[in-house]
TrEMBL record:
Its EC number is 2.4.2.9. Keywords: Allosteric enzyme, Glycosyltransferase, GTP-binding, Magnesium, Nucleotide-binding, Transferase. Allosterically activated by GTP. It catalyses: UMP + diphosphate = 5-phospho-alpha-D-ribose 1-diphosphate + uracil. 5-phospho-alpha-D-ribose 1-diphosphate binds at residues 79, 104, 131-139, 200. GO terms for molecular function: GTP binding; magnesium ion binding; uracil phosphoribosyltransferase activity. Belongs to the UPRTase family. Residues 6-208 form the Phosphoribosyltransferase domain. This is Uracil phosphoribosyltransferase. The lineage of its organism: Bacteria, Bacillati, Bacillota, Bacilli, Bacillales. Catalyzes the conversion of uracil and 5-phospho-alpha-D-ribose 1-diphosphate (PRPP) to UMP and diphosphate. It comes from Bacillus aerolatus. Uracil binds at residues 194, 199-201. It holds the Pfam family UPRTase.
Length: 209
């Protein structure tokens, strides 16, 4: 069963408060999302495996550690997820980046895949799917379906704010996926928006309406 991790680190909570503020402009919003993504990436990679190596320091030969195991892939859900990618790459610049694009069917209101581009070695990578919001869970569920259909077997999901309803949907449909959240908010309102949330993350990242 996948686990849900809610980060309570003071720096993450402080920066998230500014992100929530409706008076925070596009430039600062974008920079803060990037910074929170970096801080979250530090935690989400805590269980990455290590292997022993020998290294020659300026003083002597030493036993040391280096990353082992699968390579990492970062997959933003278009378009808002793009705002979190650089924050992860700041720590892991060798990670490959894929993309999943979804749109909402106007009649069924369900997400429909329109674009998927992933690294060629999908089966050999640990993937982190990123999106600032986990509201109803529809987009996250479909994005993870898209990865699994193409052979991905190791997936984590990372977002800034989540509604309990979306978390429950994710746990039910993708019980093998761990969920990493900066803040678990109160609820969804009647329009499906996260309360208190942070507004439309895509519009605030890119300065659109």
């Amino acid at each position: 069963m996948g686990k849900v991790y809610v980060f309570d680190h003071p720096l993450i909570q402080h920066k998230l408060t500014i992100i929530r503020d409706k008076e925070t402009g596009t430039k600062e919003f974008r920079e803060l999302v990037d910074e929170v993504a970096t801080l979250m990436a530090f935690e989400i990679t805590r269980d990455m495996p290590l292997q022993d190596v020998q290294v020659q320091t300026p003083v002597c030969e030493a036993n040391a550690k280096t990353l082992a195991g699968k390579k990492l892939g970062v997959v933003p859900i278009l378009r808002a997820g793009i705002g979190m990618v650089d924050g992860i790459l700041n720590l892991i610049p060798a990670a490959k980046v894929g993309h999943v694009g979804l749109y909402r069917d106007p009649e069924t209101l369900t997400p429909v895949e329109y674009y998927v581009k992933l690294p060629s070695d999908v089966e050999e990578r640990d993937f982190i799917v990123v999106d600032p919001m986990l509201a109803t869970g529809g987009s996250a569920v479909e994005a993870i379906h898209s990865l699994k259909k193409r052979g991905a077997t190791s997936i984590k999901f990372m977002c800034l704010v989540a509604a309990p309803e979306g978390v429950e949907v994710m746990k039910e449909i993708h019980p093998d996926v761990d969920i990493y959240i900066a803040a678990l908010d109160e609820k969804l309102n009647e329009k499906g928006y996260i309360v208190p949330g942070l507004g439309d993350a895509g519009d605030r990242l890119f300065g659109t309406k």
